[in-house]
Amino acid sequence: MDTQFAIAIMAAGKGTRLKSKRPKVLHEIGGRALLLHVIAAAKQVVDAKDIYCIIGHEADRVRAAVEATGVQFVLQTEQRGTGHALQMVKASFALSSAPIPENLLVLSGDVPLIRPETIEKIREVHQSERATMTILTAVPSDPTGYGRVIRVDPGAQTPEVLAIVEQKSLAPDQLDTPEINSGIYCFRTFALFEKLDLLDTNNAHGEFYLTDVAAMLVADNQRVVAVKADNIDEVLGANTIAEMMHLDAAMRLATARRLMASGVTIFRPETTVIDSEVEAGPDTVIEPYVQLLGATRIGSDCRIRSYSVIQDSVLGDNVTVRNGCIMDSATIADSAVLGPYAHLRPESHIGAGAHIGNFVETKKVTLGAGSKANHLNYLGDAVIGSGVNVGAGAITCNYDGVHKHQTTIGDNVFVGSDSTLVAPLTIESGSYIAAGSCITDDVPTGSLALGRARQIIKPDWVARKKAAKEIL
Ligand code: UD1
Ligand code: CA
Fold this sequence. Notes:
Elements: E1 5-10, E2 28-29, E3 32-33, H1 34-43, E4 51-55, H2 59-66, E5 72-75, H3 82-95, E6 103-108, H4 116-128, E7 133-138, E8 148-151, E9 161-165, E10 180-188, H5 189-196, H6 212-219, E11 224-228, H7 241-261, E12 265-266, E13 273-274, E14 279-280, E15 285-286, E16 291-293, E17 297-298, E18 303-304, E19 309-311, E20 314-315, E21 320-321, E22 326-328, E23 331-332, E24 337-338, E25 343-344, E26 348-350, E27 355-358, E28 361-367, E29 372-375, E30 378-384, E31 389-390, E32 395-397, E33 407-409, E34 414-415, E35 420-422, E36 425-427, E37 432-433, E38 438-439, E39 448-449, H8 461-471
Parallel strand pairs: 1-4, 1-6, 4-5, 7-11, 12-15, 13-16, 14-17, 15-18, 16-19, 17-20, 18-21, 19-22, 20-23, 21-24, 22-25, 23-26, 24-27, 25-28, 26-28, 27-29, 28-30, 29-31, 30-33, 31-34, 32-35, 33-36, 34-37, 35-38, 37-39
Antiparallel strand pairs: 2-3, 6-10, 7-10, 8-9
The structure holds uridine-diphosphate-N-acetylglucosamine (UD1) and calcium ion.
Residues 110, 237, 239 line the site of calcium ion.
């Protein structure tokens, strides 16, 4: 327990402006829930047990989504405003035996791009300025909708603040105030707690505004200061889908820049959709319109061609993913070649140097090193050795309508085109399956298996048929 600093994250609101069934803080940008971004930043600054997440609207759902982070939760059953959210924190401290931290840093669950460096900066300014309340602010191109920060010196030569005024309460002469309140603050906890009890709901929304605490502290001769964020995107809120998508684009571009800084070439990065946790090694090339999602990790010297969508997959070095591949929870070893238009479903493990070609679908498959399935195959529930050639159109029949069955294929097997391999089935190493076979029995090592009708030739059949027609 840090006796100096704790962090509270306001995340109880519904997000009415999103018009969505999903709680606002669980909407995603960069492939991760807003609240998880904020918690991740907070955890860089204090221990998870010193983070108090205020939840309320769909509390169970929000808690379940972020529980693994190890943060504490404070319940705000009714959402009566940001001031009321902090009242709940005060009440929970009163009930617990934990010492009240000297300072409380407050973050908003819907201001997701906040960086740990900036949280540190507020904390430092708060201490060096000996402030009771320190407000993170910014001057965006359009301040409409945000609470505005009214400075003692509007020329902003000094950091002192007089008040925060919400958009709907701005007086005519305050309407052009350019500096916004980010919804991120640091307080001396005792001073904050004292003022929380004095808040009222005499305002446009009929809510308890946390922002009113600023003027109350000033009236009490306490020091309230503003610190400007270095980066404007960091303090932008996500109240509407459009705002959310603006932040999503900003975050994905930042991820692309991070990858490019580590040696990845991304052509037209603005066309790619790359989630924030994705990693890729140097000299990998990512072509336009590629999506790299979830926990995807790509090695060095890979080429990911346009229109491929790769989710939660791990690719080794020197892998080629040709155009239009779809991959989910797959692992691909070094120098494998995939696509174009391959579909790798979960638990596809493709060996080193293996090829998966056009219109091939795999699921729960291990394909050994150097093996090839290049054209129009379905391979499901199979363990396939190395050096195997699966001919065009060959498939595993893994499902009997009730159960899934396994196919095992040894090393260096040749599976002829259009073979139908009916599982459960074992084809031992070095054997051949004749093209067009329906294979239902196990095939021993080194043998040839044929399972097809014998061809019949009827010589001169066409001429005889024609002659018969003429007689009629
Ligand atoms: C708030 C600020 C505004 C600031 C803006 C910055 C107030 C009164 N206004 O406005 O000055 O410019 O943020 O983004 O604080 N929440 C709760 N419980 C509640 C209400 C809200 O936990 O009862 C949470 C929400 O889930 C959200 C955050 O607090 O994460 C902010 O609430 P929101 O309603 O979005 O406030 P804004 O109108 O954006
Ligand atoms: Ca907001």
